[in-house]
Give the backbone structure.
Amino acid sequence: MKIVRTERDLRNQIWSYRGSGDRIVFVPTMGALHEGHLTLVRLAKQYGDRVVVSIFVNPTQFAPGEDLDAYPRTEKEDARLLKAEGVDLIYVPDPQTMYDVHHATEVKVGGVAKGLETDHRPTFFDGVALVVTKLFNRVQPDTAIFGEKDYQQLATIRRLVEDLDMPIKIIGAPIARDEHGLALSSRNAYFDADGLALARKLNVIMMKCAEDMRDGRHVDEATDAAKRSLLVAGFSSIDYVEVRSPNSLTVLEGGYLNGPARVLVAAHCPNGESSVRLIDNFAV
Ligand code: PAF
């Protein structure tokens, strides 16, 4: 496994893979890797000959109030995990070379990127779309893997690739969960025992919500009931519980399910003196 840090070293390596006719599968990450990321890497191996993983804590997707410096940086351990998974190449770009002082270009996706997360983190998807565009241009993968855990992000990347004619196949990886159904996330590491026990109730409540809708309950009633259950369980606030169409993420018409849908949730889980924001989603 190689680790490259400059664009030049990356391109040389990519050209050498291409020269051998290898198909490149790319897994972009912000590091602090956990089992969830490793499931993306394992899936990546099924789609090509060379797996390239980037580790880059992208400043443009952090809002001014969000602490970029506090984001965990665990490159050594990340590299160890990726090596054990048989990854071919890790790309760790330097922030200065990603965004030089003259950087002035924005990448803005509408439609799927509106509402949900954007109502609470208004510039998040602008930052994601920008960095992913740049990483795609540098790595030039045939295929890229994104987790369904960040469902709106996955939908946004699919839109970006389609709209800008990028010749890259986007694969969504199913959500990896712990034995209690909690979606794996780097934020889970922050939980104390009580926080973790509460966080594990989120998927139980949301699966009940999905089941209610499948059984013919009105979408508004089912989502309102889920919000009430989350608050009763101990969640301190809820950013959203919404049901959307699975691809375009448009709001469902009519109030009752008449085909596949996705229920998406973001809620704040108290943990000691602070709280952890959890996001999750379920196919209905
Ligand atoms: O999902 C993430 O880890 C990040 O948003 C991504 C896609 C690596 C872009 O920085």
In short: Residues 124-139 form the longest helix (16 residues). The domain at 2-173 is CATH 3.40.50.620 (Rossmann fold).
